[in-house]
Predict the structure.
Amino acid sequence: MVKEKFKVYIANPSKRYAPSESEQFNIPKKGFTLRYSLITSFLDRLIYQGIAGILISHLDQSIPNCVYSHRKAPQKNSRYIFQHAIKAWMRFEGDIAAELDGTGKVLLVTDVQNYYENIRFSDVKKAILFNSKNLGLKHSQLNDIKCAANLLIRLLKKWEKSKGVGIPQNRDASSFLGNVLLSKIDIQMVKKGYSYFRYMDDIRVVCDNVFQARKILKEIIINLRKIGLNVNGQKTFIMKEDDKNIELFIHKPNREVDQIDSLLESKKLLNIQKALPLLRKLTLKQIRKNRTHEREFRFCIYRLEKIARYDSIRKEFNFRGITESIIEELLEQPYSVDIFARYLKSVHLTKRNLNRIKEIICDPEKRIYGWHIYNIWQILVYKKFKDQSLIDLAKSTIKKSRNEAEKAGACLYLGGCGSNHDREYVATNFSSLNSFLAQRNALIAVHELDYEKIIKHHVRPHVKKELAGTYRILKNNFNGTYIDILPPVKPSEIFRDIQSHVS
């Protein structure tokens, strides 16, 4: 149904899609600073991703090969429209290292300051239309691109927090739009013969000497200013190849990662059995060295999560030490909570593990970041960890907290782990929930309650228009479901030699 609606909006511009307003939440970053995140309605997110799907199918070819992030997946039958992010980053760093290796050249390192929040809508649209020229596209394809661009601008204007500026962060669609916007600069750098590399807002240039590096940096700054952007001075460096800090910016090939990846990618049972202890060792090393923000750690966690969701292998793998460490890192690295939460949902947690998570969320001194706490509530709901002190905390949060993300998590906990009486508490306090996020979670929490007795009087009058009908959909199609369950991994996703494994 959504797909058909989207086709209508693209094919017939007179059928104007009316997006909803966005909500801004503060998300912790490394170094305990903050970045913003725009929360939009479910349908708006689908439309945004759909626009990116149309644009990437035509415009990816206009982006030079020196750009590694968010490129079109090569297979037509791929589940994802973008190439694998971790592998793309590894190629990015590997190609830079190869270009620099043993040459005595210098490396220019910089990134775009406040990248997403400073992107101007008008510049994005101009770049989309400019890049669509000279690609040999049919008139109908050019018209699709124009309609998609117009629909995109309507979305962005409805979501904007600063007039005409700022696109959603941490969205694949946004990263691709950034590629389109910066592609003119990318092409200029390549045409001048520079050894130029870019991954999202990270820019690297291998230069003959420091003077060429300064010249190229000047060119990059001048070109970025034309589209309202600039480099981050604190993250800009010119380093010689023998600089001891250079490995902070170009990680040389990691033999451990390469070996594990090769063994797992083979999808052969014997190789996978060899990879498991290596994966465990590498994960513990990354945790011990406080490298959970690095891509090698994401490499480990994504694979551990998949292993944890495949019963036969999970029983063979020793998660002890890893799970306990990650629970502690929930507190120490709130900026990695999304990765940690997905892992903790996938693995078995003991009562002791769950009580430790409870200690973290119950300590008022440690409840600093609403988004962080929201994710921790989700873990507890996922594991169905019922505890009276948590129920009391959830009620207090709904009543007293001013943080909508915290309130959203508290509502979800009362729905998933509380009694009908607790769910009624969410319903009777529904009018105090001001955000889309909190109301959405509250509707999940109350969807099993009687409409005539409870919902009609306490909930329905206060539901935001973009959530109209949500209670009915939940009641009819997801009755008794309070959180999405991660699906088990299929044997074919782990093994190529399924027959020999089964037998």
Remarks:
- Residues 497-503 have pLDDT under 50 and may be disordered.
- Strands lie at 23-28, 34-39, 106-111, 195-199, 202-207, 237-240.
- The longest helix spans residues 139-159.
- Residues 293 and 336 are 7 Å apart (CA to CA).
